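Model it.
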Amino acid sequence: MTGLARLFARLPLGWVHFLGGMLGWLAYGLDRRYARRLRENLQASGIDPDPDAFRHLLRRAIASHGQAFCEVFVIWFRPEAAVLKLVREVQGWEHVEAARAAGRGLILLTPHLGCFEIAGLYSGSRFPFTELYRPPKVAWLEAWMREGRARGHIDLATTDYAGVKKLLAALKRGEAIGALPDQVPSQGDGAWADFFGRPAYTMTLMSRLQRKTGAAIIFFYAQRLPKGRGYVVRYLPPLPPLSENPEQGARQINAALEDAIRACPEQYLWSYNRYKGTPP
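Modeled.
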């Protein structure tokens, strides 16, 4: 399997995205539960209420889901230098430099938007970067994940107590950490806050880490360019300090998420089950 993955990774990115688009439509046609969640989450967001515009956005989102899956092989199994050449442009790097110059650490948050794998890898190629991840249940998949992500200056931290201690230690050294802010946390590790008008259980870990260290929080993402031309990595201006109130801080995180997603909504992973659980 690893050999096949490495062979697939050698294909031109345009081919990978073309095949990924076909895979996205195949999955949409075969898996009704997946298709319903993708369609309903996108529609409920209200990003494009016009029926014709919504259908066009839905078609692009379906293809984008398959592209996001297939490009993971390119990011994980190509040599690091070859992957970084796919980053065609970087915007907002001055925000990162200013935050790091303050010396209080940096929290980089990238949602399930665009190619979040290359966004993290690019940041980790520039400075020490500890990345939070949730280990999959399948052992061989975790081995792939660790091989693909732990490159350059990247260190990985698991979503448990030991991992949180690792993140805090990195921030206290003035380094950067990263996480997926729209990943649903375990019970007791989050707060309910609106996300596109519906309550979503949202992690509060980043606000707690910010209060302990004074670190800046910056959202960033890698937007996929058409026809396999590569990616643009965008770093947004730092967020204002998050509220000490867990629900309010979670709402600030989700509001920043919404702003980033509206920039290229077809590239968000709408099939992700962000609305797990039942709000009190």
